[in-house]
Amino acid sequence: QVQLVESGGGLVQAGGSLRLSCVAPGSGFSIIAMGWYRQSPGKERDLVADMPRGGSTNYADSVKGRFTISRDNAKNTFYLQMDSLKPEDTAVYYCNAGVVVPGDAFLYDIWGQGTQVTVSS
Predict the structure, then answer these.
(1) How far apart are CA 15 and CA 8, in angstroms?
(2) For 73-118, what is each residue's pLDDT tens digit?
(3) With b meaning 16 or more CB within 10 Å and e meaning fewer, what string describes 19-35?
(4) Does residue 113 sit in helix, strand or coil?
């Protein structure tokens, strides 16, 4: 089964930076599209940034100019660089990927386990 493994979360002071990673271990598949979402207690899970097919990027208004999504195709890994962090960025961050397997017409929609990001004042 294709899985996504997240890392890089933690505690940081306001104005600091963190870099989240999301890797799909193994081989025999390709990540077609990817994105990062976040969820705070009592709130819905919202899109932070994504990279659809074609390599374009999209960002939530609240993180534009501060967050950057990128990928390393050779390692089946993608990242979220978070700079100038604010307390309102505190949330559990989830990575998401659309994955295809050669010879299989089905597109798998896979979620990571989540990683906590806490930004203190």
Answers:
(1) 17
(2) 889 999 999 999 999 999 999 999 999 988 888 889 999 999 999 9
(3) ebbbbbeeeebebebbb
(4) coil
